[in-house]
Amino acid sequence: MPIFARNVVATSQHLAATAGLRMLAKGGTAADAAIATAIALTVVEPTMNGIGGDAFCILWDGSRLVGLNASGRAPALMTRDRYAGLDKMPGEGWGAVSVPGCVSLWVELHRKYGTLPFADLFEPAIRYARDGFRVSWMVAQQWQRAIARLKDQPGWAAAFIPKGRAPLPGELWRFPAQAETLRQIAESGGEAFYRGALAQKMERCAVDGGGALRAADLAAHQADWVDPIGLAYHGTSLHEIPPNGQGIAACMALGILENFELSGFAPDGPEVAHLRIEAMKLAFADVHRHVADPRHMEVTSAQLLDKAYLKSRARLINPRKAGRFEPGTIPRLSGTVYLGAADEGGMMVSLIQSNYAGFGSGVVVPETGIALQNRAAGFSLQPGHPNEVAPGKRPFHTIIPGFVTKDGRPLATFGLMGGGMQPQGHMQVLSRIVDFGQNPQAAIDAPRWRVHESGDLWLEPHMPAATAGALQAMGHTVVMTQAPSFEFGSSQIIWRYPDGGPYLGASESRRDGAAVGF
């Protein structure tokens, strides 16, 4: 059930949520709470994120919406030649490691919006890592699933399966090396990670393992404040971080869906599901062709979000038959883990951080607890593609924090982790709320579909059987999944009441998370 409170934190692991709530109870801002929650998540949910990952956030500071892109770039030595003979980027090992950025988000977000001492925000996470915590059920399942993929990667088995197996649900897990790393980051204000002893350890590990990462790459990294992009959908606006992230796909899909009348249909019926699916497929066709580091894109976000262009794309949808779509001709204009935190002063933070594929690349820097992400796997090896791997370039990114406004006022922090599922989930959940008036908790608990990378349509087991059968008859290649599934993401929402009353905090049942507040 949702909670109602004036100060709220919602995320995918309950110990992390309470870490953030403690900062609010100490008088900190929603930014302080979000940072403490994010730091704690690297300890209590290492299967989904870590110190060596990336992060983004969108924040309502009380008067305006701002965004922070802390994704890392390709190291200077990460040239196209390093991948000669491959047809796609590797998903494991040093070849998949780009510069980690999430620590820079913690530092920069605190610099601008925090009020508590920076080191205070690390206290719960350091205690969890040093003294131990009981591993929650879903995290234990994710941990076990990672072994086959990562057991042979440098440093991973020694760090994360020292007993030769994953920890069991309820088992005590301690990680003193990570506690020490967090202490160094806390006391140095992040300098130890990007310019100090930890940076030197990462470089030595990379040199020994044949990786491209160097201390100079870490020292050159910076998080960037950006203006969120957005699209109005039936009077409610969804905002996302601009490219290099895929959040624009959710906005585009809603812009396409807006051209169809959904009233009169059931929210879980085949008619609505089909239109949403086709809109998402059209959006993905464009995004996978055009979205990259914005310095290398051939089109702009404004061009991709042009309502006339999206209307022209909507005309390609056959309401009774599944289609296959190619990227459109863009009009040339003269132009993970997720968490939300909100405080009674009106600040609202939507933050997401991730190592990408579970523990990331599988590379763990010895005696540090730093599991390095595999975000470089998001690059393309297609010659001339805007997202082709190159030094200093940010890769195409899947993690996307969302934010909802109405009439220029903040309405909700909103996110849904899960790789390519994220924009699909953003679109499905917001459409349920806007088009059918479902409350946020019902909207995030409802059955989901996923357009899989293979082209198949994956459905959750609680999708109505009649809808699944009708979608199959329309030409969709339907794959029914089994519970519990990790393929449909996990969502949290903090909804603000327009009369200035308490927030509604919602956290779904697909993960171990919780919405907490006071």
Strand content: 15-25%
H/I helix tally: 17
Tell me, rounded to a whole number, the average pLDDT.
Answer: 94
Global morphology: globular
How far is it from the N-terminal to the C-terminal residue, by CA? 16 Å
Main sheet, how many strands, which sense, barrel? Answer: 7 strands, antiparallel
Radius of gyration: 22 Å
Helix proportion range: 25-40%
Across the major sheet, the strand order is 1-20-19-15-14-9-8
| SS elements, strand count | 21
Uncertain stretches = none
* Helix/strand structural class: alpha+beta
Q: What's the number of structural domains?
A: 2
Task: Give an overview of the whole structure.
It is a single chain. It contains 17 helices and 21 strands. By secondary structure, the chain is of the alpha+beta class. The chain folds into 2 domains: 15-225 and 337-355, no CATH class; 226-336 and 399-498, Orthogonal Bundle (Serum Albumin, Chain A, Domain 1), CATH 1.10.246.130. Helix 11 packs parallel to helix 15 (421-436).
Show the helix and strand layout:
Layout: E1 3-5, E2 8-11, H1 14-25, H2 30-44, E3 54-60, E4 65-69, H3 102-113, H4 123-131, E5 133-134, H5 137-150, H6 156-160, E6 172-173, H7 176-188, H8 191-194, H9 197-209, H10 215-220, E7 224-226, E8 229-233, E9 236-240, H11 247-257, H12 270-290, H13 301-304, H14 307-314, E10 337-342, E11 348-354, E12 364-365, E13 370-371, E14 402-406, E15 409-417, H15 421-436, H16 440-445, E16 449-451, E17 457-459, H17 465-473, E18 478-480, E19 490-496, E20 503-507, E21 514-517
Parallel strand pairs: 17-18
Antiparallel strand pairs: 1-20, 2-10, 2-21, 3-4, 3-11, 4-7, 5-6, 8-9, 9-14, 10-11, 12-13, 14-15, 15-19, 16-17, 19-20
Helix pairs in contact: 1-2, 2-3, 2-4, 4-7, 11-12, 11-14, 11-15, 12-17
